[in-house]
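chain below, 241 aa
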Amino acid sequence: MNILITGGSSGLGKAVTELLVANGHFVHFTYLPTPEYCQVVEEMKATLKNVAAYPLNFCVREEVDAFCTKIESMDLDVLINSAYVGAPQTTYFHKIPVGDFQVAFERNLLPTIAITQAALNVFKEKKFGKIINVISEAVLGLPPMGYAIYAANKAYLMELSNVWNKEYTRYNITSNCILPAYMQTSFAEVDPRIKVQMEQNHPLHKLLTVQEVAEVVKFLVDASQQVNGIKLPINAGQIVI
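prediction:
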């Protein structure tokens, strides 16, 4: 299948890209064109056969609009909304400038909405498509301190997934969400001492890895269209819904 994943050059996105390519899929992925990520992408292109990489800054609306025009030519079967701009943790809610909520929405939700709309136009024409949204365990129960913006944006995306279920199932299009627990990546690093404490308190005594979450994404890519509208926590049963 032809798959598009946003943010495919690091962390979970990179693990998903590598796993799906290894299983015979063609993966288009976006990346932030910094020197660090450009080098990573060149290494990925040298080792992975079925990939196409697209530099894209979610913070630049013109770049997002230009990228959306390219989606029709990708003949997509699957869209994986994974990219997130900014850190997940900031500070207490009452200390966050109101404008920061708007900026985070504009940098994350609006690009994701635009890209999903472009993909849906392709899916509707094909009468087939899958949308997989990377949410977060932070939307379950009480989010960690400082996660106000991140949890709110992820909850907004999860509610959009419900809308897509309602409006597009009749076109044979699915929309599912995964809600992974904390994974230590460059996106959400914690102090090593805190990491040790988190591992000790974990029921399995080990934190979730990006490879484990990538396997769940692969399951949803390969699943029947009957698998639709699910919100799947990946957290060793610490929070269930």
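The first strand starts at residue 2 and ends at 5. The chain has one domain: 2-234.
thats it, cya
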